């Protein structure tokens, strides 16, 4: 049996008088790939912070394996004055890496994430997607035992998402446990072996096979000037990414026809469409 | 610790938040030493009082600048919360020492330029060493007072600004207040011992170490209580 890295024993969390999480039990072992689903405000991010020891618990206990290395990809990385290179280097050195180790690892990651041109631009001047890449790179600078991911793909382009998915899958193979909060089901399919929904302040196990049955299509459109997606259409789409007048969509295959018809009707031009690998 | 200090300094200096207090202190020094001659003790006393206020602002703005997300990422890297918070305090102490050096070197150089006529008497080695020590002490007290009103300790920022202002002003005026309203002595210990230390030498011609011993001890103790209290509160409150 795998050793337990982190165990949460009947954890509860209140913010003031408001109950957020109640009697949560969870054991994290190497190679675990856990997805936390639930609506905004359900406590996913709070639970991630509790697992990382970053948030105070109101009751219960958390036990950690000794010398545990935890990395964290926050949902919103701040717009700070330092450049990506300065920040990543500082973090690596603070974490005990040598200058050489930091430089090698940092250069590789900047190349992989196509950030070479932006490594010396202050983070506050970068786009949301690029800032999110910095958040990912800092977590992958060394191989952690546990990787906490809070909505890791928010703002990232599809190419970076694919890179990220591959990288996390590689980390799983190396024995890294991942706990991820997300709302993109296609991500759960690719990155999680176990899924929970936070409902009524508790962790409810989800049948992953039902999620895995969902198939997705990637659709690329050329949009007419000043086009936008309305809320009704937005509900059918898993992920949308604009690049000037180019729109990339990830849509559950069941909804592809409806989305396609609706957008063609609005003068969008289909440029590519393919099924996504699970 | 070294890497943490480098990171904190980079972050702080890039924010330009230190520029304003540094310039204000510089302007104060230009203005205060504009017309000579001065009593050494009282001019150093005034300068330490000003430095207390400036460092209280530096401590406060430094705590404001701390980003909770980057803080969380670093805490996960080092696995030692106390070391992280101590490194932040150390940055403040280093800034305090640099400001103290400025507060001592400026009149020292000006005195040399003016052929030893800046002060009412000759400047002695003891004046410089004790003066520097007192500047450092007040910088420490100011920094610890200002940084104590951290966003995670007092979430209401308007309240934090008002409380800091109140504590800083009471620290320097509690002696005068106690003369008019003696009962305030009962709660005067709550406020930083700025008055206590200034009163111990302000009216003297020379610094008298025996008279300063108790207020200096009080100031160090007060600063340490704020420092340890702050670290404990931050470790307990988390995010």
Structure notes:
- The complex is a heterodimer of chains A (278) and B (239).
- Chain A is 33% helix and 30% strand.
- Chain A is of the alpha/beta class.
- The longest helix of chain A is centred in the middle third of the chain and has 16 residues, at 158-173.
- With 239 residues, chain B is mainly α.
- The longest helix of chain B has 33 residues, at 81-113.
- Chain B is globular, with a radius of gyration of 19 Å.
- The mean pLDDT of chain B is 90.
- The chains are: A alpha/beta (278), B mainly alpha (239).
- Chains A and B meet through strand 5 and helix 2 of A and helix 1 and helix 4 of B.
Order of helices and strands of chain A: EEEHEEHHHEHEHEEHEHEEHE
Residues in helix, % of chain A: 25-40%
End-to-end CA span of chain A: 28 Å
Query: Helix count of chain A?
Result: 9
Overall pLDDT score of chain B: 90
Radius of gyration of CA atoms of chain A, rounded to a whole number: 20 Å
Q: How many E strands of chain B?
A: 0
* Helix-strand topology string of chain B: HHHHHHHHHH
What is the multimeric organization of the chains shown? heterodimer
Discrete helix count of chain B: 10
- Taking pLDDT < 50 over at least 5 consecutive residues as the criterion, the unreliable ranges of chain A are none
Q: Tell me the strand percentage band of chain B.
A: under 5%
Query: By helix and strand content of chain A, what is the structural category?
Result: alpha/beta
